[in-house]
Amino acid sequence: EAQVTQNPRYLITVTGKKLTVTCSQNMNHEYMSWYRQDPGLGLRQIYYSMNVEVTDKGDVPEGYKVSRKEKRNFPLILESPSPNQTSLYFCASSPNLYEQYFGPGTRLTVT
Amino acid sequence: RKEVEQDPGPFNVPEGATVAFNCTYSNSASQSFFWYRQDCRKEPKLLMSVYSSGNEDGRFTAQLNRASQYISLLIRDSKLSDSATYLCVVIDYNQGGKLIFGQGTELSVKP
After folding, report:
1. CA–CA distances in Å: residue B19 to residues A9, A46, B73
2. Shortest Cα distance from B36 to chain A (angstroms)?
3. Which of B91, B96, B101 is closest, CB to CB, to A43?
4. Which of A50, B17, B43, B45 is deepest in the core (most CB within 10 A)?
């Protein structure tokens, strides 16, 4: 089944404790991206990647890191999470930018 | 001014009603337009693309007005299952193919 998977789906953590949210797709898509969704603000792009070893900042990259060592994986790293990073996070992949396939989301709470 | 703006709603309509959403965008260089549907904080899914000539998919009709810089989504004969949040998405290729999401319009169809 073609899909984008994210783990974990839910995470509660404390300020400053490094965490990684994994994202994997099995559709051989070149384009992958990370978004956060907050009430009243909609989906905002954090980082995106056009291909392996090619990443670029989106609208809200501060406090996040990504890597793209393999085509299928695009992890999101929070080196020192803060409460303002409490949000719903979506990973997405796309063959052509037009149709984004989103993962199921990761709900992160930073206390 | 936000790059993509939508009326957040909620739009509460009875089954069988016709409902229309508008979405305005600020950058006249925006080049591709889409409607996504998001159910109850689940992942967004592509509903339909929006072409300059307008396009229809069953009960759904999408239109683009470049002169006034807005796109619209019309839903005829609303079903209970149409209840969701509808996200307007604009792609600006002058910004490297950046996807810009509206904050979404919530639709609730009542029996």
Report:
1. 34, 33, 8
2. 9
3. B101
4. B43
Quick: pLDDT tens for A54-105. 999 998 999 999 999 999 999 999 999 999 999 999 999 999 877 899 999 9
Determine the 3-state secondary structure of B96 from DSSP. coil
Q: Which tokens go with B57?
A: 């998919």
Place of tokens 């993509």: B4
Q: Which two tokens stand for residue A38?
A: 């907050």
Q: Do A66 and A47 meet the contact criterion of CB atoms below 8 Å apart?
A: yes
Sign of the torsion formed by the C-alpha atoms of A84, A90, A95 and A98: negative
Question: Contact B103/A41, CB-based, under 8 Å?
Answer: yes
pLDDT band at B57 (very low <50, low <70, confident <90, very high): very high
pLDDT digits (tens, 9 = 90+) for B6-36: 988 899 999 999 999 999 998 877 778 999 9
The residues, any chain, with a CB within 8 Å of residue A56's CB and separated by 6 or more, are: A47, A48, A49, A50, B96
Of B32, B34, B102, Cβ closest to residue A42: B102
